[in-house]
Amino acid sequence: MDVHPLRVLEFPTVLACLAREVETPLGREAAEALGPGTDPAAIAESLDAVTEAREALLTTRLPMDGVHDVREAVVAARTAGACLDPVTLAEIASTLEAARRLRAAGAALQGSWPRLKAAAARLTPPAEVLAELRRCLGPDGAVADEASAELTRLRKQVATQREAILATLHTLLEVAAAQGGVAERFVTLRNDRYVIPVLRENRGRIRGIVQDQSASGQTLFLEPEGVVEENNRLRLLRQAEEREVRRVLTQLTGLVGAQADVIEATVQALAALDLLLAKARLADRWGAARPALAADGRLILRGARHPLLLEQAPPSGAPIVPIDLEVGGRFRVLIITGPNTGGKTVALKTAGLLTLMALAGLHVPASPDSAVPVFDALFADIGDEQSIAQNLSTFSSHIGQIGRILTQATARSLVLLDELGAGTDPAEGAALGVAVLEALLQQGPGVVATTHLEAVKVHAARTPGMENASVEFDLETLRPLYRLSLGVPGRSFALEIASRLGVPTPIVARAREILGPAALSARDLLAGLAGDRQAAEAARREAESLLAEAAEARERYQTLWSELQREAAALRRQARSDAEAAVAAARREAEQLVARLRSAGADREAIKAFQQDLADLARGVGERVAPSPEASPAPPDLRPGQPVHLRAYRQRGTVLEEVAADGTVAVQLPVGKVRVLASQVHPAVPEAEPAAVAATVPAVEELPLELNLLGARVEEAVSRAEQYLDDAFLAGVPRVRIVHGKGTGALRRAIAELLRAHPLVEHFSLAEASEGGSGATVVELTRR
User: Which end of the chain, N or C, is less packed with Cβ atoms under 10 Å?
Assistant: First the structure.
């Protein structure tokens, strides 16, 4: 994508915010190089990976400690005979060790996060190289004595030789010190040879070679004649040691070079994992959500906030106001109007920047029901682009940009135009602006434009495929409200603002006269069209809301009816089983009685009549327990305010209203309001007052194994969850589920913090996909 729209929309600043979230130089480079893509499958995969990483980071930490940028060193290791220094080799070892640790951590992840696990599985540090580097290098990067048998032998000889030299020199020091011939009693190194300090005037008392002198020249550092050969031998041993160390380093470098491709792939995978985790942390910090990728070309932003405003502390009393913006579908051109400093450009930049973020695989600071198409290109003409060097005025620069846009934009592009028609005569600018919009409407890209020109607003109001929107403005405080109203053209409020800012009233009045009735009629036209459109839009939203409620109610009733049918069938099966068992037992006893009657000489007809009565009894019991679809239990007599018990919900509640004509009734439960069949509701048995010293322990069969917190505020949800955990522990329940939903993740994070610190929680994790996935958390309670 062209760098111009990325620059004017401040996408590099977003990347700088992302770069602050990475942990390695590799990740920083990957963050700064990130750009929007055009492959829907790849973008969707990236967005889903960020979702998984955000979920995993709630309960898991994947630290990138010990990772270094070793790419140049690995390339250098490919050269035959190359020898990397031990510090560089230690950095390679540290990086491979970090990759091994992260790969193991990814494999051990408990949640269902295939993309995150795959990112960790792409870390393939060569085990044999890592093992050899660790064996040969110490924690400080120095070559270990055990790197080779020869090095072990040489270092032992060096140590023995050094100790012998030191012993000889200390003896000489003692003798010389007794004669007053040394400056101080210590042995030191000069020119890599062991020497002792001797006063200049006593130089003649000890024979040897002067290797150095002090700054004052009063102390000479003398290598006594008796240790010259010993020092020579030590030096030869050290040279042999250095040659062996270099041989070891060359061998290790060769191992790295032989596996350079694998190591480079692992380094790239480390950068990708670091970038993925940084995306997740940035999304959490901005309260962002994963947008849908719209296949129908509609850009829909709900509750959108400009990300760079989130980086700034909002001034007192001026919080960030989310905006709703839509383009595509029934209109492809959106014209945003309103006063100067009213937030038009902020809305324009928010739409463009959030689109770029989504196409770059970043979650966006907007509601989860937002949708972004995969545009093939994004074009933007924003701000003052005048250039003295190129002899371009602001207007010339804008026209140059618009000319390029008209020749390059396609039906799959997004075009952003700021202050369309500005910088020249208003009438000519408006005419040119209308012509540009008509051309773009015919070409088919999505267009979001801002303008002050009334003629452009009127044209948009009258043209199918175009739509007006306005940013709201508070005339009392002269401050923008940053709310975007779709279907309502905005005014510049220039005369009103001038009056508020102290321009004399006669001048403002004269300006209104000069403005004339034509402008007023245009405003009236716009206001009338806006009113009609708002009414139609309100009716449409109400209809959609009613349809949604009806669909939800139907689904709820179908679910409840299915549950009722299952319960009734289970009860009938149990009743039949109990009755058949009772009849079988009675038959056995009757047969025993018949046998006794026969042995007692009873009449055959009497015995036959007794057996017939027994068969009739069994048949009657079978008919009474047979399924009867027409039969349904009579609903109980329920009154508003009556305490009741819902066995299907394992909850107590209160009846809210009379039983409806369809046999349902509304009941208030602790977890919320439900509507159920009256036949499922049973009058509650009064609870006994607890003794003053007795603790109420909830029964396992009455305590729900799931806590539903959907729709609750964070503070309320945490309080309810804490009480629920206490009740579950007292009831002896080992495992429960807390439903918090997905949304922005704020409620999920609050519940995770509670569980992490709760003394009764043994372990918790996000639920499997079959139990709600990231919308629920499974909690295992301690049994102590």
Answer: C
